[in-house]
Write a structure and sequence with these properties.
Helix content is about 85%, strand content about 0%. By secondary structure, the protein is mainly alpha-helical. The chain has a single domain, classed as Oxygen-evolving enhancer protein 3 (PsbQ), four-helix up-down bundle (Four Helix Bundle (Hemerythrin (Met), subunit A)), CATH 1.20.120.290. It is elongated, with a radius of gyration of 18 Å. The chain starts with a helix and ends with a helix. The protein binds heme C (HEC). The site of heme C has 21 residues, from α1, α3, α4 and α5.
């Protein structure tokens, strides 16, 4: 009985730790990616923007499931899971929009996509941190 409880507690804390780990990795990758994208736009370095977008998409995929996102939200914000999930979807959509605009050499439009992406990061962080 006692052992079962300990085992269950152990399993729960391991799965929480790995969910948390995925989140931290995801965020760090996205942070590096967005810094690269910003550097790329400021220096008109298209290659840098594109490389940053690849990172962002990779990081975003790691923390995009509704289950993970819901678990990260504070209790009084769980009913807004959809908003947070949509922020995550917007990041991937923006990455594609930026790439397509770069293909067309529409650099101003591409930069607008970057601004929208920043807003999506803040949208979710605002909920997470009740800001
Ligand atoms: C769907 C929600 C969501 C989105 C979208 C999101 N984040 Fe996060 N982010 C989190 C959560 C959850 C945390 C951890 C809690 C905290 O730091 O308050 C976090 C934390 C972070 C951290 C701190 C990580 C650490 O090690 O403490 C960074 C950096 C970060 N996010 C970058 C980004 C960037 C850049 C984007 C946009 C490209 C982004 N995030 C979009 C949910 C999100």
């Amino acid at each position: 009985m006692k052992l079962t409880k300990i085992l269950i507690a152990g399993i729960l804390s391991v799965s929480f730790a790995s969910a948390n780990d995925a989140m931290t990795k995801s965020m760090n990758i996205m942070q590096q990616g967005i810094e690269q994208v910003q550097f790329g736009f400021i220096n008109n370095n298209e290659k840098m923007v594109r490389e940053g977008l690849v990172q962002i998409k990779k990081g975003n995929t790691m923390f995009s499931s509704e289950t993970l996102i819901k678990a990260a939200l504070p209790d009084d914000k769980k009913h807004m899971t959809n908003v947070a999930v949509n922020a995550s979807k917007r990041i991937t959509a923006d990455a594609t929009i930026i790439e397509l605009n770069l293909d067309d050499k529409a650099y101003t439009k591409a930069a607008e996509g970057y601004a929208d992406m920043m807003n999506a990061c803040s949208r979710c962080h605002g909920l997470i941190r009740s800001w």
